[in-house]
Write a structure and sequence with these properties.
The protein is built from seven helices and two strands; from the N terminus they run E-E-H-H-H-H-H-H-H. It has helices spanning 19-35, 41-57, 68-78, 83-90, 94-101, 109-119, 123-128; strands spanning 9-10, 13-14. Helix 1 (19-35) runs antiparallel to helix 2 (41-57) and helix 4 (83-90) crosses helix 5. The protein is elongated and about 50 Å long.
Length: 130
Amino acid sequence: MLPEIFPTRNKGKMNIASTSDYNVALAEFEQLALAGQKENMLRLIELRNAIDGYENAQGHEPAFPTSYAGRLELEMFKHRLKQKQLAVILGIPESRLSEILCGKRTPSLELVKKMHTELHIPANELLSLQ
């Protein structure tokens, strides 16, 4: 049974209605996650979904990258890659990748093609980057 702080349910889904509900949900999520018990998994998933829904409704989504450097950093984060590993995947020297990430250099057309083929970044996204 859900605590009374979450009175709003939509088709069996928990909805967070206020900032105080959100803070309570975050605290409960952290406590359950730190306990690391498998029997808490369903509750953790329910809390995760409710927290995510509240954050999205409040406009807490991160802005999508508008630069090649930002998009490469996002890929590094998503795939838990280090700069050296990404350089190997893209077939470029680590120093060149570093210059691109620092904004000192723009990627060549060949590198943009590799970002599409190796990292599976949609071409339309790559064409919109600066």
